[in-house]
Amino acid sequence: MEPDRYSRIAITLHWLIAAALAFQIGLGWRMGNLTAATGQFTAFQLHKSIGITILLLSLIRVAVRWWKPRPAAEPDSPWAKRAAGLVHFGLYAFMIGGPITGWLLVSTSRIQVPTLLFNTIPWPHIPGLHGALRGPVHEFSEAAHSALAWIGIALFVLHVAGALRHQWLLRQPLIERMLPAGPERLSPGGGALAYVAALALVGGAFLLPGTIGSTRGNVPPPAPAAAETPAGETAGDDAAEANGAIETAPAEAADNAVTAGDNASVAAAPAEEAKAEAPRWAVQPGGRLGFTASFTGTPIEGRFARWDADIRFDADALDKSDIRVRIDMASADTEDSSRDETLRGDAFFDTGAHAAATFRATRVTSAGPGRYRAQGSLTIKDVKRPMTVDFTLAIKGDRADVAGKGTITRGDFGIGTGEWEATDRIAGPVAVDFRFSAIRKD
């Protein structure tokens, strides 16, 4: 005999999954507006934890659906029954397929970030997805994961619309079967109240992720006030917009003034007195500051989207040259969002605590016609080490074209700690390259 109501375990799973899905969609929506300094990494880890939880609950729900008897379908037209069946099938595909495609995304990332469910329970990657499989599977899962999110939202709307149709147009006691307790038939007011309560549960879960930006654990909060722009500079300066304007800020806000993915500036300490005898050169838009690392023998290329340089250079008086470069570490871009977020984390650049890296060269020597060597120091994560770069320089009138390269050892700066400290997967040496044009200012 078919029961009048769903079993308690089915009801509990139904509302738990509905709330978790709403939270997950809201979190995914919210993550697009978060930055490294406002909890983006924490949000991604929570998103993975909730996703695996939804997958496990959904598999249990499928098992309960076959194990426990459920109420008979309400009388309806053939087309409506077919539509309802398709919507229910689609919802199960969304509930299971969404987490699986997300799991595939994490498992095929070039940098394998361990997954700890709620920072406690280790969760493995899907095995066998390396080599030639990695790229195609990653692209497919990325597209499928995004598509399933929108399909799931549409199916949820259709599911609610169908339930409302049964409840009020057909006058069938549908929601009563899925309530934890209650009469066999609610009054119109009781039915409306039950739907409002159910939608409030789901809607509240959707809105809850909006608090993540202000409760992000150990990630330092952003500076309480915007840094002032130095006199003589404007926010619309072309070079600043191209390489990321670098503004001064109070010392106590310096570490927190930069956020990834926006136009915030790199906080810089007060500059030492420049060597006024050498002319100043202004970096022009379109330059590149890049790096190449080796991961399991495969070169991984990236660049910094925001950087700026204060250059004093005189080819006829090299001893008066002074080069200062400031880099927004959160702007690292390797064309892989998961990998970029990992680079901003504590194990690598730790951009929440160390927003900017700096290079200072006070000794420039000639290495032949049009070739030079700059010797100085690089500071990353408050660690200062000697660094030498070789570059070529072609000056035509007031314009100079520069290209060069150097090499650092990531371990010297604490880039890649914990499980990433060994060099069997990520090699120790990292190549740095740059090219840009500059205009003589004085």
Fold and architecture overview:
This protein is an alpha+beta fold and 442 residues long. The protein folds into two domains: 207 residues, Fumarate Reductase Cytochrome B subunit, CATH 1.20.950; 203 residues, Beta Barrel (Lipocalin), CATH 2.40.128. 34% of the residues lie in helices and 23% in strands. It has seven helices and 13 strands. An eight-stranded antiparallel beta barrel has the order 3-6-7-9-10-11-12-13.
Q: Kindly provide the radius of gyration, computed on alpha-carbon positions and rounded to a whole number of angstroms.
A: 28 Å
Strand content: 15-25%
Please write the CATH class name of the largest domain: Mainly Alpha
Per the principal axes of the C-alpha atoms, what is the gross shape? Answer: elongated
CATH topology of the largest domain: Fumarate Reductase Cytochrome B subunit
Side by side, the strands of the main sheet go: 3-6-7-9-10-11-12-13
- Average of pLDDT: 77
Task: Give the topology.
Blueprint: H1 8-31, H2 40-67, H3 78-107, E1 115-117, E2 121-123, H4 134-169, H5 188-207, H6 238-243, E3 280-283, E4 288-295, E5 298-304, E6 307-312, E7 322-328, E8 332-333, H7 337-344, E9 356-368, E10 371-380, E11 383-396, E12 399-409, E13 429-440
Antiparallel strand pairs: 1-2, 3-6, 3-13, 4-5, 4-13, 5-8, 6-7, 7-9, 9-10, 10-11, 11-12, 12-13
